DNA sequence: ATGTCAATATCCTATTGA
């Protein structure tokens, strides 16, 4: 069986429910993982998605900030969530499909503006969140699992528009890249997107602040699809839907997709 | 490159977060 998973930081699921519906209609992924829903779970417009066949949803939410949801055409068992680094935020939820595949949906803290935990508490929280992820996956070695989400780090030089100019910018600093690498190693996660598309610049986020995001093209690959080694070979056809960033009233993130033959 | 966008609280403007 082949199934396609998509991940998308939606930046308000209520405001952009029509865009979610458009993506579901045009791409028909089996599973869509959303981040930054910015909504309590009971106010997510699940009925809009159910009408399109996505009758199963597992979600965690809070008022105004954060929030993650997994929409699925197939039944998905709620495996719970973990409040990594004890921030009291809704940033993770996990589910299991009937084929036995576990899905982790993450929204890693953005980390604020200054890349120094001594003066910026949010940066420390981001590093602690990643360290807690690392320790947890060391303790609970994932198998037959997919991890997706807005990890808020662009690890490779070709994951950013200018490696040199972003070395001190939160999302691409060496300490963040190191922390992300340790998390990836602890779960023996394979970066599916880069296994599929190993060469060339690849972005999933473009700032709202650019006058012309498309022309400037100063993007970063913050959104990721990882899989454990036992199923990563089944992945193919990875895509980042850049054109979605150009939709009316868009999210600043584009959806990232991968297909697995399992 | 201090620009744009969204949610909230208090109210139609400021603050916070990204």
TrEMBL record:
Keyword Acetylation appears in the UniProt entry: no
GO biological process, one term: DNA repair
Domain of life: Bacteria
Site (Transition state stabilizer): 152
Residue positions of the active site: 107, 150, 253
Family: Belongs to the DNA repair enzymes AP/ExoA family.
NCBIfam families, per database record: xth
Name under which the protein is recorded: Exodeoxyribonuclease-3
